[in-house]
Amino acid sequence: MKVVVTLTKQFFKGHPRAGQPTDFADLVRSGKKIHTCRDNADYWSGKIEALRDAGGTLCIREWSGKPYRSPQDTIIEIPAESVHVSKLKLTRITQPGPSVGTFYHNYAAKVNGKSVRIEEIAEHDGFTSSRDFVAFLDPLFTKYQSTDIHLAIIHFNEFNY
Q1: Is the pTM here over 0.85, yes or no?
Q2: What is the pLDDT of residue 11?
Q3: Cys staple from 17: which of 11, 29, 117, 133, with CB 3.0 to 4.6 Å?
Q4: How far is it, in rounded angstroms, from Cα 48 to Cα 3?
Q5: How far from the centroid of its chain's Cα atoms is residue 19's Cα?
Q6: What is residue 139's three-state secondary structure?
Q7: CB–CB of 149/37 below 8 Å?
Q8: Closest among 61, 135, 18 to 10, alpha carbons compared
Q9: 88 near 109, Cβ under 8 Å?
Q10: 84-96 and 114-116 beta bridge pairing
Q11: Residue 117 to residue 108: CA distance in whole angstroms
């Protein structure tokens, strides 16, 4: 059994760094990107559990060009016994800004119920800043019209928070 996780080569439209390279492939190969966060936590938890039960491999790929419109290139394959999933709850806290009608967001994270610094999660996910990390995930708050989003963290090794 093989499970595929696809990473993006460039930051998507709407991200402050849109069009710039993510360098995720190099970060995975170097061991600096040790996990990825995914929407649909229950789906990914079940998928990785089935992978571990079958003793397959996690195939990490990236889009060669536009996501969903280009072929995928394999970055690395990881044996199932090295892969596991944690549950991430990301909370967006909106606070009033310095002038009327302005606001800003703060974020809080819990991994498997334990508070974890956003900066730590961002670093392990291959982002150079927590700002890039939350900007990458921020559209999900709008999608779900919620202040909380629930994600799966797919770990590429035995690291755990």
Answers
A1: yes
A2: 92
A3: 11
A4: 8
A5: 18
A6: helix
A7: no
A8: 18
A9: yes
A10: unpaired
A11: 7
Indicate the pairing of strand 2-7 with strand 57-63. parallel
Location of structure tokens 């119920």: 113
Token reading at 161? 């928070």
Q: What are the tens digits of pLDDT across the range 75-119?
A: 999 999 999 999 999 999 988 878 777 778 899 999 999 999 999
pLDDT of residue 105: 86
Contacts of 71 (CB under 8 A, 6+ apart): 63, 64, 65
Find, among 36, 9, 7, the residue nearest to 22 by Cα.
Answer: 9
| Residues contacting residue 98 through CB under 8 Å, at least 6 positions apart | none
What's the token pair of residue 108? Answer: 């809080």
Q: Which of the residues in the chain have pLDDT under 50?
A: none
Confidence at residue 97, expressed as pLDDT on a 0 to 100 scale: 75
Extended strands (E) in 15-102: 35-39, 57-63, 72-79, 84-96
Which tokens sit at 16?
A: 């402050």
DSSP label at residue 63 = E
